[in-house]
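Example 9 (inverse folding). The structure is encoded as follows.
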């Protein structure tokens, strides 16, 4: 699965011309002393928070990011501010909290950010970076994933991983299946389907840990055949990373099957033969490690089996946090990309003339019969940033309603915010499992404030 740069590359300014660390903090502080415009003060305060991070002053960075609503004054209540610079504040708070080694608070802050703009796909993707710093599946985290699974390219996979962390392997396997079903629904006779050995292998592992070995073994066997075919026709090199990940998962599944079949010593030996499992998810590795270690003689606790299961879990979560801070330290533009341009309602009213035209949609290119996709291609002409992404979802919801359908699903291989391939239908239709289905009425209700119905507005309702 690919996000295909949906979130964009972020700001790409000339880093050499920007002050950094303590010098940047001083410059921003001096500029703030003479500034009277609230929005400019907000932007300078956000920049100073980033400079504090560069200087490894993480608590002052958090303080600056948390002060943004106060700095904004009355403008903090504006819709545009809340859907842009307030989100920037929360994103930088989350980064500061990760640096301060407060992952649960960072995750909660990211969830708050996601809830403010629930159909802003970019914000949902940015929040996803932090939602995985803890193993618990809280109600707010579950609500986030239920939404992200439908509108972000990889949301359903992260949702499956969240269930793996709490040991609910059957639900995780069902979510893997939903991802595969959605992809299958967009297949077209004119183009070969993209192979999915990694997803299939992941489903086999989840089912094995759930104890459903009849289905798990059958999926594993089919996936091995798929990998063999890829290697024989030369595609294996193209998908090498995917193949490698899938093969490790299949080896892991085979060991789980051996253990369940009573071949305990053999399973322990094969598991311990690796110094570390690197592709299989840590939550699953920790679980099987725990099962294999129970009652094992000390002589068997070697290699991967020597690791304490709880350490596997905690090390994985620490690595997730470390990856976030390492990326921010390495890419000097990453934190600056969190500072969004100020949004206004004008960016949403930009779409009002056409977004409700469902009888002759200006955003559906005419079909020629030569299309290499299944469904409808929606392209929001005159794109204008974040608002275009929400306009696309609103227009699709209105189209679904006009066609007498409950909603739609999006092709997860979505290259741009202002374009997507969509299929309209009802939950449970082929290729439309409920966990990845977008309910039209819910979207319309959520986005009607941004895109009001002219008839309702004219009537004063």
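The amino acid assigned to each position is listed next.
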């Amino acid at each position: 699965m690919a996000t295909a740069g949906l979130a964009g590359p972020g700001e790409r300014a000339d880093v050499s011309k920007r002050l950094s660390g303590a010098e940047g903090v001083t410059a921003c502080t001096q500029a703030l002393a003479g500034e009277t415009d609230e929005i400019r003060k907000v932007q300078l305060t956000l920049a100073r928070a980033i400079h504090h991070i560069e200087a490894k002053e993480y608590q002052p960075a958090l303080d600056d990011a948390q002060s943004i609503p106060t700095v904004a004054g009355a403008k903090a209540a504006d819709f545009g501010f809340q859907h842009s610079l307030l989100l920037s504040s929360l994103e930088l708070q989350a980064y500061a909290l990760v640096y301060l080694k407060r992952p649960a608070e960072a995750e909660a802050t990211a969830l708050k950010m996601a809830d403010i703009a629930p159909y802003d796909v970019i914000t949902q993707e940015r929040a996803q970076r932090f939602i995985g710093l803890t193993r618990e599946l809280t109600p707010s985290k579950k609500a986030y994933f239920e939404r992200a699974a439908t509108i972000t390219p990889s949301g359903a996979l992260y949702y499956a991983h969240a269930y793996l962390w709490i040991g609910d392997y059957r639900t995780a396997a069902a979510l893997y299946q939903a991802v595969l079903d959605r992809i299958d629904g967009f297949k077209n006779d004119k183009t070969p389907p993209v192979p999915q050995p990694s997803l299939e292998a992941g489903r086999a592992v989840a089912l094995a840990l759930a104890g459903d070995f009849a289905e798990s073994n059958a999926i594993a066997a089919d996936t091995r055949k798929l990998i063999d075919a890829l290697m024989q026709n030369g595609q294996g090199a193209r998908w090498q990373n995917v193949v490698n990940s899938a093969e490790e998962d299949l080896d892991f599944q085979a060991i789980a099957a051996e253990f369940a079949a009573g071949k305990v010593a053999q399973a322990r030996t094969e598991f311990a033969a690796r110094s570390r499992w690197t592709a299989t998810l840590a939550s699953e590795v920790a679980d099987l490690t725990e099962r294999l270690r129970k009652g094992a003689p000390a002589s068997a606790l070697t290699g991967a089996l020597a690791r304490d299961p709880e350490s596997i879990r905690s090390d994985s979560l620490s690595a997730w946090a470390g990856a976030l801070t390492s990326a921010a330290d390495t890419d000097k533009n990453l934190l600056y990309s969190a500072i969004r341009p100020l949004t206004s309602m004008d960016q949403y009213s930009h779409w009002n003339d056409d977004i409700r035209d469902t009888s002759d949609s200006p955003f559906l290119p005419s079909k020629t019969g030569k299309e290499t996709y299944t469904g409808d291609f929606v392209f929001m002409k005159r794109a204008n940033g974040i608002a275009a992404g929400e306009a696309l979802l609103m227009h699709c919801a209105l189209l679904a309603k006009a066609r007498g359908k409950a909603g739609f699903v999006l092709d997860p291989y979505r290259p741009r915010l202002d374009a997507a391939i969509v299929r309209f239908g009802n939950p449970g239709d082929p290729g439309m499992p409920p966990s990845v289905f977008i309910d039209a009425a819910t979207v319309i209700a959520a986005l009607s404030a941004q895109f009001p119905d002219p008839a309702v507005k004219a009537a004063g309702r």
